[in-house]
Amino acid sequence: MTALLELEDVEARYGPVHVLHGISLAVEEGSIVTVLGPNGAGKTTTLRAISGTVRRAGNIRFGGRSLQRVGPDGAARLGIAHVPEGRGTFSELTVWENLRLGAYTRRGSIQPELERVFSYFPWLSERRRQQAGTLSGGEQQMLALARAFVLRPRLLLLDEPSLGLAPVLVAELFRIIRELNEKEGLTVLVVEQNAHLALQAAGAGYVLEAGHVVLSGSSAELMADDAVRRSYLGY
Amino acid sequence: MKRQIPALASLVVVAAVLVILPFILSDYNISLVAQVGIFFIGVLGLNILTGYTGQISIGHGAFMAIGGYTTAVMSRDHHTNFVVTMLLAFAICFVVGLLVGLPALRLSGVYLALVTFALAVSVPLLPLKWSKFLGGTGGVASYNPPSHLWVYTAAWACSAILLVLAWLILRGRVGRAFRAVRDSEIAAVASGVELPVYKTLAFGISAAYAGVAGSLFVLAANGFAQPTEFGVFLSLQLLVGAAVAGLGSLWGILAGAAFVGLLPTVSSSVPVIGSAHGRNVVFGVAVILVMLVLPDGFAGLLARIRRLARA
Amino acid sequence: MVSAATSRLEGLRGGAIDAGTATVVLFLLGAAIFLLVGCLQSTAFAQFTIQGLAVGSVYGSLALALVLIYRATHVINFAQGELALLTTYIAWELMQHGLSYWEAFAATLAIAFALGTALQVTVIRPVQHRSVIAVVIVTVGLFILIDGIVDWIWGSTFKFMDSPFGTASFDVGGVQIQHLYVGMLVVVFVSVLLVWALFRFTKLGLGMRAAALRPSAAALVGVRVESMLAIGWGLAAVLGAVAGLMAEPSQLFLTPSLMQPILVYAFAAAVLGGLESPAGALIGGLLIGVTLTLIAGYQPHIGSFRITPELQTPLAFAVILLILLVKPSGLFGRREVRRV
After folding, report:
1. How do residues A53-90 score in pLDDT, each as one tens digit?
2. Of A83, B4, B11, C90, which one has the fewest beta carbons inside 10 Å?
3. Which residues of A touch C222 (CB under 8 A)?
4. Is C115's pLDDT higher than 70?
5. Are B166 and B48 spatial neighbours (Cβ–Cβ below 8 Å)?
6. CB B33 within 8 A of CB B21
7. How far apart are the C-alpha atoms of B120 and B63, rounded to whole Å?
8. Which residues of chain C are at the A interface, by a Cβ-Cβ cutoff of 8 Å?
9. pLDDT tens across B208-249, in order?
10. What is the pLDDT of residue B238?
11. Residue contact B118–C268, C-beta within 8 A
């Protein structure tokens, strides 16, 4: 069974600075996969390589189809929803407008999609006229997730969703991610600093260091691994 | 700075060519080459401002107007010697340039371009207001205007003098300060360069140069200073010339001056479009193409050629 | 009490209402009252004010075009006035070939849109991410080119365009309100309203707003950012065309230098309103229009110095300079932090 997303020997650079030196990974449909690693390892860049936001080389296949010439708006149209670092929400627009943008690639009415999103995030419905920038950090993160989910993406890319959030909110966030994965079959690739939470939610993971994949396996294997435990799990 | 002045030999060649040309060219063509000389001065000055301190001015035509009107009015009222009027124009425009440069300190990039654009449109209207002194729409006529040959000689003589002056300014402390400002204002301030002084100075110098160019411009037009000649288009020409010239090359400035001095006139002869009416079409297209293809101007092109030649 | 009120408003509207905005609103209210009182007191004042509002709406429309482009790309389109000039001449030409005024008007708006998008794609796109000077020169080159095209095709003789509003006036309590001025205001108002509605209520408009606010985030949701910019230029050209067409009836003669001073007034309006504020551009336009018309009408003295109509453009220049020195973000703009 070919994976939904396959990366083969992918390199990426920002101008003259090479950040990814040939990484390979695979994400099975319907799974949650996490990417761990220290700062500067290239985790964010990996997601950017997938959504086409950075210059990259190598083989990236999504649903069997190459993403070679696909830029970020093309990736969105193919069903890849990327929630970047900093959430990518539009602070100057309202909650409703942000959600509406999530469905940008769909023509016509999106009422049923919105209803579904509101069933997972009921409080969003009451705040739809509120300016997104006036939401709290946690609420904005939820909004970002909700927006990514409006069109039921085939793949959700999450970049450090727990950043800057109180633990209670982070737990809630991951609960919703797991719920979306179980109930809706949402495939998720999540980059996380919080290795503990990530490995608990995910089924499999990759560890990145200095632009290379140094370790991979199921989350159980990773949680049992000594190096991982020492570096990322703190024991 | 050594790159700025090409080998003495090539300078001598250019000088020789300029000396010979009047003997073989028609009077009309002499005035054309004189025009290039006039723009050489203006472009050189503006190049110092834009290239070295990064301030974009679409208003230097206003300084040319001030210089030109100075010459015409002094000549009309006091029959002043033309060279003296040019010196006056230099001095007056230097001071005005400093005054303009002061508020310009607080404006950067596009904002400065915006303000100077408005200045360029406004200044030619002033003679209409003070029409008794400044001649209104009819303009001001100089007393005993000079021949085209005289203007040719004066233009290129001034070019040489002002070029040497520019070289002296740019090789010294002032030049180093200018270059520091261009490369990074923040770094320049950090290393103690007094930004306001040098940015204002650059404005004054470029304005003074434009003033002299303006004087010659009026003299070339049979001594007539008219508001319509100093419209916004003149400022556009200067800026285009400075940008097309690129930075750090004397030949670039010559190329830039030739580009804006000759192209509009030459465009009249282009078939189909050709006629005085269509020439800006060709000129406009040329400007856009040059910017698209040669973002660093002629200086950049020359630098690229030199690199290729070395390889 | 104020803070409680403003924090409630925070949630509802876009952005907090702070002391700065309150001052501006008060100032505008004061200006409106001043104008109203003046109109009631003097017929001449009323007539100048109406005329000022009408020409001000033209400046505002062109200013809005400038702001539209600036907001999305931080490019000042120096050729905006000339583009408006071109479209006005095109309208004239269409009328020479038998179209009625409003048919030509509609056709011209469509042509303007096409021209605007074409310009963005061919000429601006290659340079918009390069240095400031490169973009400035390209728009300057466009200025020259379009000016040349107009001169080449139509020459520099005056052309006369019949005003579609006729020369009659409404008589309101002794004040003659020309149909022309009412017409100008209505046309500009309707055009601006339609563009606003496009931005506010359509998916396309939302995409354009998103592309202007955060291009990278917009791309991630599938917005074709470059296309949005092209459409933005098209809409700006349409607004400019409206300005040009409405400027002409009030000036009576179509000449190649028609739009140059108007561009300066539009710059003044845009700067006054704040270069990133559409509402500011319009209100700025009206303010500039009324102020300049009143001054040109009354020609006040300062000592023995009399302010005559030809000083309008230099006055507008003074306004631009003053605003940029004192409050660069204009009346409605947000304070832009120059990241050091």
Report:
1. 888 888 999 988 899 888 888 899 999 999 998 888 99
2. B11
3. 73, 76-77, 104-105
4. yes
5. yes
6. yes
7. 9
8. 10-15, 203, 206-207, 209-210, 213-214, 216-225
9. 999 999 999 999 988 888 888 888 889 999 999 998 888 767
10. 92
11. yes
Q: How far apart are CA B128 and CA B27, in angstroms?
A: 33
Nearest CA-CA partner of C89 in C142, C140, C144, C152: C152
- Give the strand pairing for B224-225 and B140-141: antiparallel
CB atoms B288 and C138 under 8 Å: yes
- Cβ contact, residue pair C220, A134, below 8 Å: no
Q: How far apart are CA C193 and CA C150, in angstroms?
A: 30
Other CB atoms within a 10 A radius of the CB of residue A38 amount to 13
Q: Tell me the mean pLDDT in the region C175-202.
A: 90
| Cβ proximity of B291 and B298 under 8 Å | no
Secondary structure class of A128 (helix, strand, coil):
coil
Q: Measure B130 CA to nearest chain C CA, in Å.
A: 10
Residues listed for chain C: 340
ipTM greater than 0.90, yes or no?
no
The verdict on A113 touching C (C-beta cutoff 8 Å) is no
Residue A51: list chain C partners with CB under 8 A. 220
Q: Is the per-residue pLDDT at B4 higher than 70?
A: no
Give the model's confidence band at A93: pLDDT under 50 very low, under 70 low, under 90 confident, else very high.
very high
Q: Mean pLDDT across the stretch C311-324?
A: 88
Find the angle CA(B40)-CA(B293)-CA(B11) to the nearest 5 degrees: 30
* Tokens at C123, concatenated: 């000429």
**E runs forming strands in chain A:** 5-14, 17-27, 32-36, 55-62, 65-66, 80-83, 155-159, 187-191, 204-209, 212-218
Contact at CB, C123 and B282, closer than 8 angstroms: no
Asked whether the whole model's pTM tops 0.95, one would answer no
Residue A1 burial (10 A CB sphere; 0-12, 13-18, 19+): exposed
Q: What is the pLDDT of residue A85?
A: 85
Which SS3 state, helix, strand or coil, does residue C177 take?
strand
Spatial separation of the C-alpha atoms in residues B122 and B227, rounded to whole Å: 11
Q: How far is CA A40 from the centre of its chain?
A: 17
A208 residue type, one letter: L
Q: Which of B295, B256, B303, B263 is CA-nearest to residue B280?
A: B263
Number of residues in chain A: 235
E strand intervals along chain B: 140-141, 224-225
Mutation for testing the C interface, residue in B287, B294, B298 having most C CBs under 10 Å: B287
CB B245 within 8 Å of CB B298: yes
Q: pLDDT at position B193, please?
A: 65
From chain B, pick out residues whose CB is under 8 angstroms from the CB of C132.
56, 109-110, 113
Mark yes or no for CB contact A104/C209 under 8 Å.
no
Structure tokens at B233: 């288009």
**CB contacts, 8 Å: B239 with chain C:** 136-137, 140
CA atoms within 13 A on the CB side of A53: 24
| pLDDT of C112 higher than 70 | yes
| Residue of C130, C138, C148 lying closest to B283 (CB–CB) | C148
Handedness of CA C28, C30, C36, C38 (dihedral sign): negative
For tokens 């609103």, the residue is C25
Rounded Cα–Cα distance for residues A22 and C242 (Å): 55
Tell me: pLDDT of C14 over 60. no
Residue numbers in C near A84 (CB within 8 A): 216-217, 220
Return the exposure string of A191-204: e unless at least 16 CB atoms fall within 10 Å of the residue's CB, then b: bbbbbebbbebbbb
Asked if B280 and C78 come within 8 Å (Cβ–Cβ), the reply is no
CB count in 10 Å sphere of residue C273? 31
The two tokens of residue B205 are 């110098």
Crossing angle of helices C43-73 and C259-273, rounded to 10°: 80
